[in-house]
Amino acid sequence: xxxxxxxxxxxxxxxxxxxxxxxxxxxxxxxxxxxxxxxxxxxxxxxxxxxxxxxxxxxxxxxxxxxxxxxxx
Length: 73
Hints:
- The protein has helices at 2-7, 57-71; strands spanning 12-13, 16-22, 27-31, 36-41, 48-53.
- The protein is an alpha+beta fold.
- The chain has a five-stranded antiparallel sheet with strand order 1-2-3-4-5.
- The mean pLDDT is 91.
């Protein structure tokens, strides 16, 4: 999943423009309006954790659904 994300260059996620991408300790997309999402492997379990911050719960849910769809989860 992280390899796919490292190569993925979306112009938008959940309808928000991608303004930046950071690949330190996972993959973090900086989104329009101050929202962001970070996918990173757990240091203690064989899982990838998803963190999202957005100003409204509806925006957060749009971002989550877009990421889950892209990753096939």
